[in-house]
Amino acid sequence: MAGPLSHIRVLDLSRVLAGPWCGQILADLGAEVFKVERPKTGDDSRAFGPPWLKDASGRDTAESAYFASANRGKKSITVNLSRPEGQRIVRELAAKCDVLLENYKFGDLDRYGLGYGDLAKINPRLIYCSVTGFGQTGPWRERPGYDFMIQGMSGLMSVTGERDDLPGGGPQKAGIPISDIITGMYAAVSVCAALAHRAETGTGQHLDLALLDSSVAILANQGANFLATGKVPKGIGNAHPNIVPYQPFRTADGDVIVACGNDGQFRKFCEVAGCAQLPDDPRFATNGKRVENRAELTRVLSGIMAKRSTRDWVEALEAGGVPNGPINTLDRVFQEPQAIARNLRIEMPHPIAGKVSLVRSPMRFSATPVEHALPPPVLGQHTEEVLRAVLELGDAEIARLRAEGVV
Question: Is 164 considered catalytic here?
Answer without folding.
Answer: no
